[in-house]
Amino acid sequence: MKAINHNTDNETAKMEMSVALKECMKKTPIEDITVKQICDQSGFSRQTFYRHFLDKYDLLNWYFDILLHESFKEMGSIETVKDGLIRKFTYIKKEHILFENAFRTDVQNSLRSHDFEMIYAFYKDRIVEKTGAEPDEKISWLLEMYCRASVSMTVEWVLNGMEMPVEKLAYLMVEAMPLDLKTLFLKIHLLQDE
Fold first, then answer.
1. CATH number of the domain at 57-187, please?
2. Domain boundaries of the chain, sorted by first residue
3. Is the pLDDT of residue 78 over 50?
4. What integer pLDDT is reported at residue 51 of this predicted model?
């Protein structure tokens, strides 16, 4: 077993454990994977695993954060919501084994919940960054509803084989945005008139 010492890069260890989780997910549904399997696959002890993660879903969410950050890293004043969505869906297709397996479960601390939290926070942060103020109650509610629906439709797309092209899915996600939210996003240049 690998043991983490003070000289070991914690991010590298976390990444190795996420790679081990992905390998396990090739053969086993996420809900049936044990921490022991992840440890056996990665070569780390259970103690090391729990030093970094609460459970397998926490590990999955940590890795998803990396993917999400990567898919949205350049979005903001330069790119639009549609461009960010295209990158996100492209990443999901690239990591399809991970997402197909992870989206099949909806337990506490699941990827679905985490996806919603991350997407909601991302859009809310863009609103604050562009307007200098927190969104009002109505916009916050519309944003929450939109993000929950977006995650739900993303899950459906993944679990149904990702047949719809990425660009079309991103286009439809933008088209489904509530009017008041869309108006705000156009005003702060997160959307383009098409």
1. 1.10.357.10
2. 10-53, 57-187
3. no
4. 93
